[in-house]
Structure formats: C-alpha cells, structure tokens
Design brief:
With 99 residues, the chain is α+β, with helices and mostly antiparallel strands. It has one helix spanning 14-31; strands at 10-11, 39-48, 50-58, 65-72, 81-90. Helix content is 18%, strand content 39%. The model has no long low-confidence stretch (mean pLDDT 94).
Length: 99
C-alpha cells in the first residue's frame, strides 16, 4: 500500500457486514429505492483522519453491485460512521477503486 493509498481488496468480514448494515438506510435514501439484497462482497480501506472504507455490495439477485465509501471518524471524534458517496451500476468483476 502506498502512503495515503488504499489497501488491497479483502473479502468482507463481520466488521464490514456491521458497517454496511449501519449505513443501509442512508444508501437507500441516496439511491431513492429499497434493496431486498444488501450483501457486502469485498472492501479496501484508507487511513485518513479516521478510516475510509470502500465496500463492494451486492444489491440485486441479477448481480448488480454498488460501491460505497463510508467514513469512520477517530475515537476522540466519536467514531461515527457516515456515508460519503456511492457508485452505481457495478458488477462483481468491477475493481474497488478510490472515489
């Protein structure tokens, strides 16, 4: 990993599943639709003043995915999670990149 860059992609784990669950409502508000499928697939991280999580999430049985950028603030700032941005129209094959 390059200083300030993102980590290599890793399979989603329990921490990532919990993060995705916490921001699902914000994702649906942003997309203006509900997702019956919402399964994290993989993720990368970037250490900043906190941590940016770039997460690939399956949102439909037909293979549609979205990429989420979620920021977790430092503990002294409350350790809050916030949805930063979303990329739509992704597939499982699309690499997770900084956005």
């Amino acid at each position: 990993m390059k200083c300030g860059g993102t980590s290599d992609a890793k399979p989603a784990n329990d921490e990532i599943r919990a993060i995705v669950t916490q921001v699902k409502g914000a994702v649906e508000d942003h997309a203006k639709k509900s997702y019956s499928v919402f399964e994290p697939h993989s993720y990368t991280t970037q250490v900043v003043a906190g941590t940016n999580y770039f997460v690939k999430v399956k949102v439909a049985d037909d293979g549609e995915h979205v990429h989420l950028r979620v920021h977790k603030s430092l503990p002294h700032a409350g350790g809050e999670l916030s949805l930063h941005s979303i990329q739509h129209s992704k597939t499982e094959a699309c690499p997770i990149e900084h956005f």
